[in-house]
Write a structure and sequence with these properties.
The N and C termini lie far apart (35 Å). The longest helix has 19 residues, at 56-74. This protein has a 6-stranded antiparallel sheet with strand order 1-2-4-5-6-3. It has one domain (10-139): Hotdog Thioesterase (Thiol Ester Dehydrase, Chain A, Roll), CATH 3.10.129.10. The chain is built from 3 helices and 6 strands. By secondary structure, the protein is α+β, with helices and mostly antiparallel strands. It is globular. Helix content is 22%, strand content 41%. A hairpin with a 3-residue loop joins strand 1 (28-32) and strand 2 (36-43). The chain has helices spanning 10-17, 21-24, 56-74; strands at residues 28-32, 36-43, 80-91, 98-109, 113-121, 127-139. Residues 51-128 form the Thioesterase domain. Keywords: Hydrolase. Belongs to the thioesterase PaaI family. InterPro entries: HotDog_dom_sf, PAAI_dom, Thioestr_dom. It comes from Microbulbifer bruguierae.
Length: 143
Amino acid sequence: MSIWYGNPTVEEVNQSLGSCMPGYLGMQVIEVGEDYLVGTMPVEDRTRQPFGILHGGASVALAETLGSVAANFVVDNSKFYCVGQEINANHLRPVVEGTVTAKASVVHLGRSSQVWEIRIHDPKGKLNCISRITMAVVPVPTR
């Protein structure tokens, strides 16, 4: 059974990412599962650090993007929105080229917070980063 409020589509997500940082870094959502999102990001000059490997900040940006998008798909956006409270990441191995693939999976859905785990794999399928984000569920201000 799907956890999403409504029926989010890959096209809908990618349209929202296009004109801000995720779009600039080449991030794309490629799958909306019943309780997870899968996205990709190229490893290229925009996302590498000076040593020629994937920048840890780019990995964290990918993790936060997927976690934030997923969190907001779980709530009724006319009543609530979700914002990041805390994120952590363990960078396990370097990635030099190709495309990394990340999967955001729900850990906890509460009334006032959510926790998502994001696992990022290199082009060979090896885990290169694991991240966890805590999202605050905030009521939309009434006017």
